[in-house]
Amino acid sequence: MENKVLIINTGGTIGMVGKPLRPAYNWAEITKGYSVLEKFPTDYYQFEKLIDSSDVTTDFWIKLTEVIEENYDKYLGFVILHGTDTMAYTGSMLSFLLKNLAKPVVLTGAQAPMVNPRSDGLQNLINSIYIAGHELFDIPLIPEVTICFRDSLMRANRSKKTDSNNYYGFSSPNYQPLAEIATEIKVIKDRILKLPTEKFYVEKNIDANVLLLELFPGLNPSYISSFIESNKNIKALILKTYGSGNTPTSEEFINTLKTIVEKEIPILDITQCISGSVRMPLYESTDKLSKLGIINGSDITSEAGLTKMMYLLGKKLNLKEIKEAFSTSICGEQTV
């Protein structure tokens, strides 16, 4: 193994150069004007087609896991350059697919391209290299998929993009940062997952036949049932509910959910709120949901809830097994 970090460029604002902005052709273009980056012990891998993160697909996620798998034994850690819009989705999915991960996988990006003198990209990238290179910079090992942004290192499957303009673009509402970044990088060891003892491997089966629906006042329950009926491939429904997991209590709405449950389609209840959790059964609404067998999403983010469901469906688990999986934490994604 080389004492190096592999930087994987998938696209995004951080690697844009030129006027008008375009994806960089190579690492030399990205580092031009930043001689400090040339001094770091890194290698560089670039996706053949760099993408806007809005174009992320399940195939993209599989490709990313394959790059890490092929290079896993060669490097101390990995830095993934990624667009910010879907970074939390990618980080969450990687946390489920990269099994027994014993090395840092750090996702980072920027709100402004590095050709902008005021870009946040340089700081984010250097901090990420430090964390991925850990022992080279006297930093404790963090064997997790993380997001490094501004002055925080967050568990990826606990993170959300919460601001489209501010340099503090990401937050971790329900779990404290794994490291605080200032003049020094302070790692909080008791927040980090334990180092696995089993051999690293990658799972590559994802089933994206999931419907995620945010409730709103006036929603006609028949729209939900009609969509499910007309799309036979839908295998799971995720409801972004009010507050502590509340939904309308009308007979029509509850019967709609009951019909879906009777089809053995799992329904996951996650809150629309940025922080906090679903609490079943706290109110009349959540009591009814609990009795129907709706899955309590606890404090899982919508990004992690969605990708966890895709991951579990990819393993071809039945309804009971999916419910059991959401009552446990696979890789620190929720409080149980």
From TrEMBL:
Occurrences of domain Asparaginase/glutaminase C-terminal (ranges): 209-326
Gene3D superfamilies on file: 3.40.50.40, L-asparaginase, N-terminal domain
Organism: Fusobacterium pseudoperiodonticum
Keyword Ligase in record: no
NCBIfam families: asnASE_I
Family, per entry: Belongs to the asparaginase 1 family.
Pfam families named among the record's database cross-references: Asparaginase, Asparaginase_C
Enzyme class, broadest EC rank: hydrolase
GO molecular function: asparaginase activity
GO terms for biological process, alphabetical: aspartate family amino acid metabolic process
Keywords: Hydrolase
Binding site for substrate: S53, T84, D85
EC number: 3.5.1.1
Identification of the protein by name: asparaginase
Keyword Hydrolase attached: yes
Active site: T13, T13 (o-isoaspartyl threonine intermediate), T84
Residue stretches making up the L-asparaginase N-terminal domain: 4-190
